[in-house]
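[Q] Does anyone have a clean structure-token version of this?
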Amino acid sequence: MVDPDLFRSVLGRFATSVTVLSARDANGVDHGMTVSAFCSVSLNPPLVLACVDKTASVYDLLFRTDHIGISILSDKQEECSRRFAEKDADRFDALEIQRGATGVALLKNAHAHLECRIVSRHDAGDHTIFVAAVEHAATLAGQPLLYYRGGYAQLER
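[A] Here you go.
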């Protein structure tokens, strides 16, 4: 077995984009969390995946909803990433959002948006992998926010 600290250190050298995953509950209340374990799965059909810790506040909701929103954060949204990573925060308070076609909350000024339908869930240790079909997508201006070696980073241009 690989030592957990070494494993974390090695994976920290893999730069990732930073996303906010959002979902609406049956009462129309928005919920969301920061997700860096996110990637494309397939171009045809268009599929993505997000890995969500089983202790995350939105975890149970992801078994009761079909639709999620993914806001790929821009380099100007580090504060949003931190807010959605905090426990028990009122994450959407005073944030500008737009509603997707399925009603999910998408953060304004993000680098890109995806609206997805969850098509499968897979147990994976202390996380669950949620695979989702992309139903709507949009690119926006700006540069992406990156996460690298335990901190935020930006592309140098």
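[Q] Thanks! Anything notable?
[A] The chain has one domain: 4-149.
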